């Protein structure tokens, strides 16, 4: 719905497109819509995909380490990991040195899935979007820098 106060540019682009926070938010939603059919083949949600990629890069991490990388609290991450465990993709085990710590490992099936999603999904995403790896790297670096500045300001 347009109002007299809205300009033609506002109507064409969207009234909120001048807000960086909305750009990041709406881009995240667009990413999720694009990722969903790619990840459905593996039976993974986007957060589960991120756990699998993190474990593919370094297996046998603690729940705390995974949470730190993914910016998730353990009360959000634990149920997610339990679903991956129920699917046979990861195992959870108490740390022998400190029973309060839970370690997460990929199973053999999980290693296979993690390898597939770590290579196939990014390639399919890049093809669908049609931007170069250099453009992605530049965008990502800008977002990482922005995130770090926002974290320092909070």
Task: Give the rounded overall mean pLDDT.
Answer: 91
In CATH terms, what is the fold-level topology? Arc Repressor Mutant, subunit A
Question: What is the CATH domain class?
Answer: Mainly Alpha
Give the N-terminus to C-terminus distance in angstroms.
Answer: 35 Å
Q: What oligomeric state is this?
A: single chain
Q: What is the count of β-strands?
A: 3
Shape: globular
Count of helices?
7
Sheet/helix structural class: mainly alpha
Helix content: 55-70%
Low-confidence stretches: none
Number of spatially distinct domains: 1
Task: Specify Rg, calculated over alpha carbons.
Answer: 19 Å
Query: How would you spell out the order of helices and strands?
Result: HHHEHHEEHH
- Main beta sheet: 3 strands, antiparallel
The fraction of residues assigned to DSSP E strands is 5-15%
| Adjacency order of strands in the biggest sheet | 1-3-2
Topology:
Elements: H1 8-13, H2 20-40, H3 46-57, E1 61-62, H4 63-70, H5 74-86, E2 90-94, E3 102-106, H6 108-129, H7 133-153
Antiparallel strand pairs: 1-3, 2-3
Structure notes:
The protein has a single domain, classed as Orthogonal Bundle (Arc Repressor Mutant, subunit A). The protein contains 7 helices and 3 strands; from the N terminus they run H-H-H-E-H-H-E-E-H-H. It has helices spanning 8-13, 20-40, 46-57, 63-70, 74-86, 108-129, 133-153; strands at residues 61-62, 90-94, 102-106. The chain has a 3-stranded antiparallel sheet with strand order 1-3-2. Strand 2 (90-94) and strand 3 form a beta hairpin. It is globular, with a radius of gyration of 19 Å. The mean pLDDT is 91.
